[in-house]
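Quick start: what a row looks like.
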Amino acid sequence: MITKAKDQDFVAIAKEDGMMWPEKVRRVSIHKAMPSIPRRHAASRLRSVLIFWGAHSDSPTPNLSFGHLRFLNVLDLEGAPLKEFPSKVFSLFLLKYLSLRNTSVNSIPSSISKLLNLETLDLKHTQISELPVGILKLRKLRHLLVYRYEIDSDDRIHTKYGFEPPTQIGNLQSMQKLCFVEANQGDDLLLELGRMNQLRRLGIVKFRKEHGKALCSSVTKLTELRALSITAITDSEFIDLGCLSSPPRFLQRLYLTGRLQSLPEWLHSSDSLVKLVLKWSQLSEDPLLSLQHLPNLVHLELVQVYNGEMICFQANGFQRLKFLGINKLESLRVITVEQGALPCLEKLIVQSCKELKRLPSGIEYLATLKVLEFFNMPKELIMTLQPNEEHGDYLKVAHVPDVYSTYWNNGILDNFALFTKEDKSSSLPSPDGSRHKHIWK
């Protein structure tokens, strides 16, 4: 079946044999099929081809005959059943966008250097772990995404794997998004990053403490940086960013995954920061004291960040925060919310805090809270939320539209709606099989 616009500029194709293509078509979207792409005049105007196989396609390896589409600018093969890089792509000299996301491709040939007009190369969730030197010839390249996530624990915490770049990657000075570079090459690589003065998003994995000075030197030069992600090589490795005197002026998102001696001093003055994710920090002091006055912070996730037994959200703190996640604070026994704190909070997730057996004190002050989720939490805490529980805490969260408890049951993620907007009178938890919450993204 073919669906087309009146001007024949766009065509969407579903699985069907013997189809005819409009002569002037410029953009094609193909769903769950790999029809024969027409030659000669019928495809002479084609600029964009997007093919969707689906996440779990069992289709055979397709015959990708794109070599004659010499004016093609966009080629999206996300999810294709590919194990090798399609060599026919190298004749598409005008190609600007190429995606092999979610394929099984595990290497990139040196012939990639022929695609001199390429601006975006999306290799997310492939098996690629290094790139050839020929990539350095692509001086127009702006977006280079080479990484994958793996979930290796019941807490749904992602492990990131990146790629080993060629030396002198700083030659790619048009680069705006670069994720995720492995820091194994040490200071030489990290200093190269400082040459990419157009970078807006930078991700680094396998970071070591001794890399801190070189990275800070480069970050100082990245005046356009909006997002920075740093992941240590192990959960016991320190991230040292103390040499950075001030944050990038426009930094909006910061992800630090590794041990911290203390929060960087410059973090306190990160006025543009909207999202902050801290993992494995293992701080000895309550980090909330340093973060509570960030003026634009909307999203905060804390995973294994603090070793203390109590945290306190002070009055007038976190004035714009809408999302808060607290995960694996294993010694935490008490959460206190003072009146006037968190006035805009809409979603709160508390996860794997094994010693926390009562609701946060003062949670009733969170008038804007819409969703409260408990993931893998002690039974004692969940039982206090039952309406018929004597001395329980049900009334403290009666104003919250949706309250959930999620936990692992023999390897299966079970989600229970303790009470929802639709049914606030439920006296016992009831399974909601249609709503499996994939929380903690």
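That is the whole record. Residues 1-7, 425-441 have pLDDT under 50 and may be disordered. The two ends are 37 Å apart (CA to CA).
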